[in-house]
Amino acid sequence: MKAFKTIDDIKKVYGDVEINEGADVWIVSRRGAVFFLPKPLQKERIMISMRTNGFPEKYLKIALNGVQETEAIRKIRVVKKKGVILDGKPGVGKSIACTWKIAKLLQYREVLSELCGM
């Protein structure tokens, strides 16, 4: 289940609900029913998951600590397909862009957590 970024995003989908914050979830109450919606993952949990799955430490540090937006990141940011091909000379940021994109997919729980070591 995809994570909601804000309480306003939840209200856009579920309407008039009462929302409380848990550590990793939004606790939503509506008409006597209570359900839990995941919050975005914190950077530390993303880092642990990606490190556990063999991502190079140097890429993680760059991708998760305010990476400069390169042409490769601009291209990969808008991709909604299941795959993308980046080409270019060495050093243009293809690997960093892919690491950044995977971190974003993890953050908003758009990939299965079982596949990400969580």
Summarize the SSE layout with pairings.
Elements: H1 7-14, E1 18-21, E2 25-30, E3 33-38, H2 43-52, H3 57-64, H4 71-77, H5 94-107
Antiparallel strand pairs: 1-2, 2-3
Helix pairs in contact: 3-5, 4-5
**How would you spell out the order of helices and strands?**
HEEEHHHH
Number of strand elements: 3
In round numbers, the mean pLDDT is 85
> Biggest β-sheet: count, sense, barrel?
3 strands, antiparallel
Number of domains: 2
- In the sheet with the most strands, the strands line up as 1-2-3
Cα-to-Cα separation, first versus last residue? 14 Å
Q: Specify Rg, calculated over alpha carbons.
A: 17 Å
Could you describe the 3D structure shown?
By secondary structure, this protein is an alpha+beta fold. It is 40% helix and 14% strand. It has helices at 7-14, 43-52, 57-64, 71-77, 94-107; strands spanning 18-21, 25-30, 33-38. The protein has a three-stranded antiparallel β-sheet with strand order 1-2-3, with no helix packed on it. Helix 3 (57-64) packs across helix 5 and helix 4 packs parallel to helix 5. The protein starts with 6 loop residues before the first helix and ends in an 11-residue tail after the last helix.
